[in-house]
Structures are given as C-alpha cells and as structure tokens.
C-alpha cells in the first residue's frame, strides 16, 4: 500500500512537471506581453527596458527554472495586467468556481441517478424514451449554446413576457421568475471565502450556470446508471432475490442500485476535475467571476503568470483527484487487495 | 390561491424596487479597468473609469472640445510657458482642499519612471506653483498642443498620496498592489464607493462637485454600477432583459435587434480611429513572396491600383453592415487638421487599377501576404478577407495571415510585414500625433519605409509653431504629401455604437469614453 502510494505520488510529480514544461513552452507562441502592457506611444527603448525588468530576456530555461522554484513556494509572480500577486487573485476566484462546480456536480448526481434508475427499470416506457432523447441534447449541444439558450429563455423572454391573467381576477407577471443572466448575485464574505449560497439572489444566480455546466455530466451519469442497472438486473442474485419474494423496492434500490454505484463513484470523481476545468466556458457565458473566466481574459491579454498558475492549479486538481480515486479503488475493490497480499493463502 | 398571492407580492416588491432604484445606472462593457491609479495605465477602459472620479485641469465635452476643468483659464505667457488659473473652493472626496500643490504633485507623478502617461507630458520642463491657485508649466520648447495633451492628466491629492505611500504609480517589480489601485480620492463628479475588480464597481454621485451647473447640469443619476461582461451575447441579453441600462460595446450584428426592442435605443457616432492598410516600400524584396523586380510596392502606380481596387462601399454595406464611414485619409473627423476635402477617396475603378498595374509592369499581378489582426478592430479579419477577393480581381494574389493582436503588433514592430492592417486613434486630437508615429521617417509605427524630407521637417515645425494659422497650413501640406503617396490605403473610420434604455440620455462621445456626469434619467 505504502509503496503503491509513493509510486503514485512520484508519477504525479512527474505529471505536474510535464504540465509546467508544456505550458511554459506554449507561452512562447502566444505573443508579446509587453505589447499588451504599454500604450502604442511607448518607445522601443522603453519596451526593451520593460522586457528586461520582467525577465523576458532571460534564456527560456532560466525563466522556467525561476518559475518552478517560485511555484514550489506558492509564488506565481505578479499579474502583468492587474499588477497583483497571482496566487492571491486565484484564491479570490477559487470559491466562485468551486461553488459552481459543487452545485453542478450535485445537480447532475441528484437528477442523473434517479433518471438512470428510472430509464433502467422502464426500458420501453414513454418517459424513459423522452429522458434518453433529451439527454442526447445534453451530450451533443456545446455548453455555450445551452447557456445562451437558457439566458434567452429565462432572462430575456421572461422579462419581456406579457402578464398572464388568471380568470380576469389577478395578473401574474412572469418576470418574477426571471433569472439573472450574469454574475453571482449578492455574496457574503466568510473570512475570505465569498459565498453566494447564503442569499436568495446568490442562489438564483447559481441556477442557470450550474445546469449549463452539469448537463453533460448529468447525461453521462444517467446513461451509466441505466446501462449498469440493465446489467445488474440480469444477474443471478437479483433473480434469486425475486425468487425469495422480496419487494421490488428492496431489490431495485437495496440490491441493484447499490451494486451499480461503484463505477458511478469512480466516474463522478474523475468528472469533478473536468467540471472544474470546463467551467471556463460556463463562467464566460454567465460572467461568473471564477478562475476560468480569469484564465480566458489572461489569454486575451497575454498575462503569462496567470495562465501558468491556472494551468498548474488545474493539473494539480486532476492529479490529486486521480490519486484519491486510485486509493479509493484500493479500499473499495477487494480484488485489488487480493492480488497483492495476505489473502493469497486462501487460494 | 396562496401561490398567486405570493407571486403578486413578489411582483409588487420587484416593481417597487424598480421604481426606487430608477436613478441608479447599471452598465457593462467587455473588460474592466485595470487599476484606479490614474497614472498607471494609459488604456481606454481604465481612463474611462478614472475620469468619473478624477478631474483634469482641462476637461472635454461630449464633442471632445476643451472646456475648463480644475483650471478656469489658461494662456501662454511666453512661447514656452503656459499659465493656468486654478478653480478655487474645490475639495477632494475625502475633504482635502484642492490647490496648486496638488497640480505640481500630480504632474510630477505623471512624469515619474513608472507612469504610463509620460508621453503626454514629456515636453514639460518644469511645473511651478506661482501662488495657491496659479501654476506655470514650462515646456522644453514652444508646445502649442500642451492643453490638449494635459487633458489626459488627472489630478490627485498630494497629502492623500503621501499618507498612503502612492507618490508614484505602481512598478511591475513590486509584489504588492498599492493603495491607489483600488481606492481613489479625486475631485470628480462621482465618488468611488466600492471597487471589486472584474466583478463590480460602484460610484455614488458627488453632490458637491464644482461642475454641477457650471460645466454640466446636475445629473439625476444617484449611483453608477459597473459590471464587466466579457461575452458579447450575454452582454446584449442583459440589456434586453432590463438588467442593464447601458452597454458600451454591443456587437455590431446585434444593433438591429437592440433598435427593434421597445424601450431600447442605439446611439452612433464616428470613432476617433481609422482603419487602413500599409505597404512596405522600404525593403528591396518582399519578405514572404517572390515577385519579379523585388518589391512592387516601390512603384506608386501599384499602390494606386490597389487603392482603386478596394470597393469600400461593399465593405461598408456587407462586411460592416453599414457601421463605418469610408475614409480618404488615415485620421477621423474630430481630429485637428481633418477636412472633408482630404477625406475624399480615390474612385473605385477596377479597369483603371488593371491598367495601372500593367503600366507598372505587372499585367498579371503578383503574390503578396496580407497580415491582419483578428481580435483588434471591428470585423478586422472579415475586412481583410473581402480585400483578398477584391485584389484578386486585378490579378494580385493575396494570402491572408490573420492572427491575434498580440502576435500581429509584435510582428509589425519587428518589421516582418510587407502588407498589413492597422488602425489608429488620436488621443491628443491633433494631426501631429499621426505624422509623428505613422508618417515621419523615424516614426515608431511607420512600417511603410515612407520617408519624405519635407514631411519630416513639417512634423518637427508643427511641434513648436504657436501661430495657429501657420500651423494649420503646415498640417494641410503634410496631409497632402502623405495622401498623395498612397503608402497607406485608407479604409474607413470606425463607428461607435452604444446601446441604452430609451429613458436614459447619455451623449455619445467619439473617444468611446462615456461621461456619466452628462447622464440624465427621464
């Protein structure tokens, strides 16, 4: 076990190093940060001086070495555009991204699993067919399009919709259901962690972005649970359970669903990394003030320190999540333990 | 029944909130200001934000004409000395009185090593306080456009800056941000109430502003709230849904939609930015293609042929959807020295262009690479694509190289381009700015190899000529020389469009910098 973890850990370090190297090499091709930083009137001499001050004239190996040494101590340098420490900026943006990712992961699990179970149990049901067809949209439409469609429906259309009259007595204004098309709403600062979960309009602002971000995972989980359910329901122990006269409810949820969850947990774990990483697009569409949005702006402005730090952070998330999933495997799946050690005696 | 009542209650609450906050102005644009430090970044959005909070000695009205700001009057007392009489009784937002010390301090700050506004003030030798409300600026030589230049220099409080250790704009080397990056203490029409970069910036109206009833009628906007929205579709959606009152930069393709929406309107004006192509006449051989004779651009007939082959009306109608003003010179209406006569284009004439090419020795045309940005100007790449087709009609085979602005401008500065697109704005609003960068043989953005001794001489002379009639004649002569050379093939002046609610009056400004002091709610 210890040897396994150490081996994994060394592999992870290597992955981080490669990511750093690749991202650093990439930055050589995205243009000149100095051009973005100074006005067009700035003379060539001043530009050269600035380039020198930023260390852009050092050989690439030296720049990379400085970057690695500083990054290990948590110092990602100072943003060219904002002139603030990148580490601080990322930390400020982190809560927004994590809250959005967590809510969309929850959304995809809480909606995806029941839908998967339902479609698994009622293979030919009308509703199941509807779920499957709709879920195709979730997989095939690009995220930004889903986001824009939601904005169009729930922000623009509802805002301009005429009031609905009820028996000529009241008028209900559909615009009370209108959702904000951008931003996080009101946030509460809890000791540096700015949360939108504690205010009504903060929660309201979460709805559309988390659906947009979670739709793909929802589809994935639903289809995964469905196919696992179909498989498990065919197994002998389910037949045996039926023969014992157990209630359908107990069989479906107590026996079948439980056994489908191992791959679901694995996939969910791995998908959390992608949710965080792919939040870039959702954040841009909804002007969600998270890290992904900052990264995209940094790309446009050639703000190399932010780009480098963001890529490293995302790589770090992936590596850590993978590490945890690997270790969970070890804990959850008895077969892995069987192969390597003590249980061999039984054979 | 209870649900209906609840919905009704909510609806009333929303309606009430709407009524109460009608004096707030919510607006958005693509990108936030980089800093609130008024001398640290000479960049459009940053200047816009700062100009709400900080005043300059000289302000601009919505037509960009100079009007008294913190200076009530100014005049040259000697050829190279300007004297400014300052406004009395003005206070900074935190209560400090404004006087000549603050002016001297602010100019020194703008001149310091880390300032991004050095180019506006580098003609200044010294700034001296004569008395508390009189300042004299001595320039290195006579400088007729000093008042234009210093309208960009915003005035900070000396005591406040010393108290917070921000006597100089922030240096890239410093690891911590300075106090002035997120805090501001100006004398301007709005007070910075909350600054959350890239998320939200709130400014409340400065009831005590000196300019109410002096430079502008008192605004009935109580607060301006700015939130950047990077995605253009979301920005427009937020305007259509009523969450925003004003969008600075709606995308061109959505203007019709905004206009057609009841309760919204679009304001348009020409921008102080002209888009054009440049050709390098200076090199002996083109860098990217092999052409017999080396560099065809050396021949004026080739340049004229290319000019005449560009069908600018089609570009305006199809590519720009009507959102451009075809240009005959590379500067816009509103810049001193611009005249309508100069702005006349050579006629579009494919046959004449073919003939000119044949006369120049290229009856079958030639191959050339066109370098374009794809994220800098309105529809930049599409304009270049249209041009490729138009030049093909006279036999010039153009390969288009469209790339990000960060790569495009670097490559231009490394002199790696034969044929390129560029757009030019004029912050000083004086033609000299164009000549000194784009036309003078040593101009730092002159990548055309164009060198004309008389034009160089005129450019130098107009820097110090204080007689305005003589200076205007020089500008005219210089424009004639540049225009006749056709080293720049002018395309059009960009158009600015702002989208806003019908109930809002906000005069559009050709420098794309809204002056919220002029905003009024109906």
User: What's the overall geometry of chain A?
Assistant: flat
Helix content of chain A: over 70%
Tally of helical runs of chain A: 13
Percent helix of chain B? 25-40%
By DSSP, the count of extended strands of chain B is 19
Structural class call of chain B reads alpha+beta
Largest sheet of chain A: 2 strands, antiparallel
CATH class of the largest domain in chain B: Alpha Beta
**Assembly state of the chains shown:** heterodimer
Jot down its keywords:
heterodimer; A: 347 residues; mainly alpha; MetI-like fold; two-stranded antiparallel ribbon; B: alpha+beta; D-Maltodextrin-Binding Protein, domain 2; Dipeptide-binding Protein, domain 3; 4-stranded antiparallel sheet; 17 helices; 19 strands; disordered N terminus; transport (chain B)
Provide a brief overview of the structure.
The complex is a heterodimer of chains A (347) and B (522). By secondary structure, chain A is mainly alpha-helical.
Task: Indicate the topology.
The complex is a heterodimer of chains A (347) and B (522).
Chain A: H1 2-26, H2 33-37, H3 44-53, H4 60-72, H5 86-121, H6 126-140, H7 143-160, E1 164-166, E2 170-172, E3 188-190, E4 193-195, H8 200-233, H9 236-243, H10 248-285, H11 291-300, H12 304-332, H13 334-340
Antiparallel strand pairs in A: 1-2, 3-4
Helix pairs in contact in A: 1-12, 5-6, 5-8, 5-10, 6-8, 7-8, 8-10, 10-11, 10-12, 11-12
Chain B: H1 2-20, E1 24-28, H2 44-53, E2 58-60, E3 66-68, E4 71-78, E5 81-86, H3 100-111, H4 118-121, E6 124-131, E7 134-139, H5 146-150, H6 158-163, H7 179-182, E8 190-196, E9 200-205, E10 223-226, H8 232-240, E11 246-247, H9 255-260, E12 264-279, H10 300-309, H11 312-319, E13 324-326, H12 350-359, E14 367-373, H13 380-392, E15 397-403, H14 405-413, E16 419-425, H15 431-439, H16 453-464, H17 468-485, E17 488-501, E18 504-505, E19 520-521
Parallel strand pairs in B: 1-10, 1-11, 14-15, 14-16
Antiparallel strand pairs in B: 2-3, 4-5, 5-7, 6-7, 8-9, 9-10, 11-17, 12-16, 12-17, 13-17, 18-19
Helix pairs in contact in B: 10-12, 15-16, 16-17
């Amino acid at each position: 076990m210890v040897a396994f973890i150490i081996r994994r850990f060394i592999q992870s370090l290597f992955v981080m190093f490669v990511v750093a190297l690749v991202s650093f090499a990439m930055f050589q091709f995205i243009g000149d940060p100095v051009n973005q930083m100074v006005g067009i009137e700035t003379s060539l001499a001043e530009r050269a001086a600035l380039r020198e001050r930023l260390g852009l004239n050092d050989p690439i190996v030296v720049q990379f070495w400085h970057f690695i040494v500083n990054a290990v101590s948590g110092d990602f340098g100072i943003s060219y555009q904002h002139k603030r420490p990148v580490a601080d900026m990322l930390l400020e943006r982190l809560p927004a991204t994590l809250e959005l990712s967590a809510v969309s992961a929850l959304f995809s699990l809480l909606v995806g699993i029941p839908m998967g179970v339902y479609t698994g149990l009622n293979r030919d049901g009308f509703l199941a067919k509807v779920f499957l067809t709709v879920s195709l949209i979730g997989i095939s439409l690009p995220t930004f399009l889903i986001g824009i469609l939601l904005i169009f429906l729930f922000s623009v259309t509802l805002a301009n919709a005429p009031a609905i009259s009820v028996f000529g007595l009241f008028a209900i204004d559909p615009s009370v259901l209108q959702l904000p098309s951008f931003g996080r709403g009101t946030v509460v600062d809890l000791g540096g962690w700015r949360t939108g979960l504690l205010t009504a309009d903060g929660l309201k602002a979460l709805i559309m972005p988390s659906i947009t971000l979670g739709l793909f995972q929802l589809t994935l989980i639903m289809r995964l649970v469905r196919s696992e359910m179909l498989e498990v329901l065919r197994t002998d122990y389910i037949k045996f359970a039926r023969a014992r006269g157990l209630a359908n409810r107990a069989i479906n949820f107590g026996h079948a669903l439980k056994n489908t969850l191992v791959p679901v947990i694995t996939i969910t774990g791995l998908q959390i990394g992608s949710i965080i990483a792919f939040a870039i697009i959702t954040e841009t569409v909804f002007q969600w003030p998270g890290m992904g949005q900052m990264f995209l702006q940094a790309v446009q402005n050639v703000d190399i320190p932010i780009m480098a730090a963001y890529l490293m952070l995302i790589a770090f998330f992936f590596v850590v999540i993978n590490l945890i999933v690997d270790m969970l495997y070890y804990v959850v799946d008895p077969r892995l333990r069987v192969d390597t050690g003590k249980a061999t005696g039984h054979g | 029944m209870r649900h209906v009542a609840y919905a009704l209650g909510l609806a009333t609450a929303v309606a009430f909130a709407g009524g109460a906050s009608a004096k707030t102005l919510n607006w958005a644009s693509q990108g936030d200001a980089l800093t609130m430090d008024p001398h640290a970044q000479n960049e459009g959005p940053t200047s816009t934000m700062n100009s709400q909070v900080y005043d300059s000695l000289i302000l601009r009205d919505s037509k960009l004409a100079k009007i008294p700001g913190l200076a009530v009057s100014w005049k040259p007392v000697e050829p190279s000395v300007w004297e400014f009489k300052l406004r009395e009784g003005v206070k900074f937002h935190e209560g400090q009185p404004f006087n000549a010390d603050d002016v001297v301090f602010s100019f020194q700050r703008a001149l310091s090593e880390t300032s991004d506004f050095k180019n506006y003030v580098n003609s200044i030798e010294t700034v001296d306080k004569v008395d508390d409300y009189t300042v004299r600026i001595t320039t290195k030589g006579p400088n007729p456009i000093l008042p234009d230049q210093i309208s960009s220099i915003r005035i900070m409080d000396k005591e406040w800056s010393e108290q917070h250790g921000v006597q100089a704009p922030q240096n890239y080397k410093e690891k911590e941000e300075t106090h002035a990056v997120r805090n501001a203490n100006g004398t301007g029409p709005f007070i910075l109430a909350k600054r959350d970069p890239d998320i939200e910036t709130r400014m409340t109206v400065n009831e005590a502003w000196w300019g109410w009833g002096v430079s502008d009628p008192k605004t009935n906007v109580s607060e301006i709230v700015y939130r950047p929205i990077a995605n253009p579709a979301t920005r427009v959606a937020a305007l259509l849904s009523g969450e925003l009152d004003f969008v600075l930069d709606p995308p061109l393709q959505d203007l019709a939609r905004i206009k057609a929406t009841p309760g919204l309107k679009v304001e348009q004006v020409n921008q102080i930015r002209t888009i054009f192509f440049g050709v390098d006449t200076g090199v002996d051989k083109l860098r990217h293609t092999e052409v017999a004779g080396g560099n065809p651009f050396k021949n004026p007939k080739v340049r004229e042929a290319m000019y005449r082959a560009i069908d600018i009306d089609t570009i305006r109608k199809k590519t720009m959807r009507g959102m451009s003003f075809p240009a005959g010179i590379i500067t816009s209406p509103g810049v001193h020295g611009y005249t309508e006569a100069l702005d006349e284009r050579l006629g579009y004439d494919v046959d004449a262009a073919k003939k000119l090419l044949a006369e120049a020795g290229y009856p079958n045309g030639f191959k050339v690479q066109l370098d374009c940005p794809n994220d800098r100007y309105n529809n930049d790449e599409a304009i270049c694509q249209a041009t490729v087709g138009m030049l093909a009609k006279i036999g010039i085979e153009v390969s288009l190289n469209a790339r990000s602005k960060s790569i495009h401008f670097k490559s231009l500065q490394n002199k790696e381009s034969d044929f390129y697109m560029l757009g030019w704005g004029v912050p000083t609003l004086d033609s000299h700015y164009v000549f000194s960068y784009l036309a003078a043989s040593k101009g730092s953005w002159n990548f055309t190899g164009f060198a004309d001794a008389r034009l160089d001489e005129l450019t130098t002379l107009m820097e110090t000529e204080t007689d305005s009639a003589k200076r205007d004649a020089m500008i005219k002569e210089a424009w004639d020389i540049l225009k006749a050379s056709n080293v720049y093939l002018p395309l059009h002046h960009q158009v600015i469009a702002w989208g806003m609610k019908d109930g809002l009056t906000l005069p559009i400004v050709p420098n794309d910098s809204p002056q919220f002091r002029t905003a009024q709610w109906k």
